[in-house]
Design a protein that fits this description.
The chain is α/β, with parallel strands linked by helices. About 40% of the residues lie in helices and about 15% in strands. The chain has four domains: about 140 residues, no CATH class; about 70 residues, no CATH class; about 50 residues, no CATH class; about 190 residues, Uracil-DNA Glycosylase, subunit E (3-Layer(aba) Sandwich). The strands form four sheets. It has a five-stranded mixed beta sheet with strand order 3-4-5-6-7, with no helix packed on it. It has a five-stranded mixed beta sheet with strand order 9-8-12-14-13, with helices on both faces. Strand 1, helix 1 and strand 2 form a beta-alpha-beta unit. The relative contact order is 0.06. It binds uracil.
Length: about 475
């Protein structure tokens, strides 16, 4: 069959984008391809600096034609806001497969508009990962670019910085530096290109080398003393710091010379501050809505770095009973509600059996983010560490102060630690309520997921004890007038 006789959808296309970071060009080409019914395996994408075997897929008839946009009146292309916002960032990633990934997802979105809601989908997850990597790279650029002063005859004072981004983020971040350093004349040099601001006009220049940028200058002393003064031992996590501020950036940062000295002894001080509850979490929130808002952005422990959404407690303000679990699981993370997965369903059955109305209780967790490790398509639950629970106590305690329950039921050891700030044995302490400082009572029992892990006689016995604990809670609630 000749090329002319084949329909568009039967042929292979090579799309050459003009720039490695050109989202609009990708979008225009992708729209045209979708409208023409060209399936993802028939498209090869390339852009300057993108290598790999993209050209392996040439047109079946040997031409590898550039794609031409479809005729007017072609059907509209569906892409939801979330996809577009992630795609804008993902295009800036250095992964040569990014354009193809985006096109596959766009193609799937035409048939299933809910694709982006499936957090376990490998392509959605990869897109989220690209977006995260690019945001992190931009964040590093904002934080670690260090200008050095050079004087030149035509310009007078001019500031030059050297930076090595991992992704194609230079142009996308130009606006940030223009706004921030509007009154300076500056250049940012990178191995992929350069930006120049003359106080008025931004221009782009060719790639540069590190040796094109100047060495130290007197401003560096200023940086160093500023850094030493803001260095906060309570926020220092060496592993996290190295991840956030990899050594490769240190050579451009005058203050980095101080880091080893500042680290010395800081860890000891930090653990004292956590133990003493003095970790600086800012102002205590005054409403549940404020907590719900703040926990999403909380990055005070490594779980927050997983970048999934936090799950807020739910239930009426002033509830007599507050039920505290360990942390959201996979389904809680996806729905944004506590105790809706298998453990939650088991809990609901036993609460109902005990005559406790879950809707009248405030249900929450000691830890607000789901901690997991990815395994293929699945996300496997990981128990939070004592330190992670202690950091998150700030939020669950804030919830308790606002809801003001008379009785708190902690399910399992993590929840107990979240309420008490120390480890206790739930089975040894169960049955004997503990008085909390505001006059309310803490009751302890096992976590329903513990029951789910047992079988046979052990499960029957533990279930009996669990029911007995809930019956005790019910009786106490009645005595409290609930
Ligand atoms: N396990 C918990 O501890 N909390 C939930 O919300 C779900 C499962």
């Amino acid at each position: 069959m000749s090329a002319a006789a084949k329909s568009v959808a039967d042929r292979y296309f090579v799309v050459s984008l003009p720039d490695a970071d050109d989202f609009d060009a990708w979008r225009e080409a992708a729209r045209g391809l979708v409208q023409a019914g060209v399936s993802p395996e028939r498209v090869a994408w390339t852009a300057p600096g993108v290598s790999g075997d993209l050209f392996a897929q040439q047109d079946a008839d040997g031409g590898g034609p550039q794609f031409r946009p479809p005729r007017p009146g072609a059907p509209p292309v569906r892409a939801n806001r979330r996809f577009v916002s992630l795609a804008r960032n993902a295009v800036l990633h250095s992964d040569p497969e990014r354009f193809a990934l985006l096109y596959r997802l766009l193609w799937r979105l035409q048939r299933n508009p809910h694709v982006m809601e499936d957090k376990a989908d490998p392509e959605v997850r990869r897109l989220e990962e690209l977006d995260r990597n690019v945001r992190r790279d931009s964040h590093k650029m904002h934080a670690f670019v260090r200008f050095r002063l050079v004087e030149n005859e035509t310009d007078g004072e001019h500031y030059v910085a050297w930076f090595e981004p991992e992704h194609h983020i230079l142009r996308a971040n130009a606006g940030f530096f223009v706004r921030r350093f509007a009154n300076m004349k500056w250049s940012i040099l990178t191995p992929a290109g350069s930006l120049h601001w003359d106080g008025d006009v931004l221009s782009e220049g060719p790639p540069a080398q590190r040796s094109d940028a100047p060495g130290g200058d007197p401003m560096e002393d200023l940086w160093r003393s500023y850094y030493a003064s803001i260095f906060n031992p309570a926020r220092l996590k060496i592993g996290a710091m190295l991840k956030e501020m990899p050594r490769k950036y240190w050579k451009n940062m005058p203050e980095a010379a101080l880091i080893p000295e500042l680290i010395a002894g800081a860890q000891k001080r930090e653990s004292k501050m956590v133990t003493a509850g003095a970790l600086d979490m800012g102002e205590r929130p005054e409403t549940l809505a404020a907590i719900g808002h703040a926990i999403h952005a909380c990055r005070h422990c490594p779980i927050g770095q997983l970048d999934n959404d936090a799950v807020m407690g739910e239930g009426p303000l002033g509830a007599t009973l507050m039920i505290v679990g360990e942390q959201p699981g996979d389904q809680e993370d996806m729905t944004g509600r506590p105790f809706v997965g298998p453990a939650g369903q088991l809990l609901d059955r036993h609460l109902e059996h005990a005559g406790i109305d879950r809707r009248a209780a405030y249900v929450t967790n000691a830890v607000k983010h789901f901690k997991f490790v990815p395994r293929g398509k699945r996300r496997l639950h990981q128990s939070p560490t004592a330190k992670e629970i202690d950091v998150c106590r700030w939020w669950v305690e804030s919830e308790r102060m606002i809801v003001k329950p008379k009785l708190v039921l902690a399910l399992g050891a993590s929840a107990a630690r979240g309420m008490l700030g120390k480890t206790v044995s739930v089975t040894k302490m169960g049955g004997a309520p503990i008085a909390l400082e505001d006059g309310s009572e803490l009751w302890l029992t096992v976590h329903p997921s513990y029951l789910l892990r047992l079988d046979g006689a052990a499960r029957a016995e533990q279930t009996r004890l669990f029911d007995a604990d809930l019956a005790g809670v019910k009786a106490r609630l009645e005595a409290l007038g609930a």
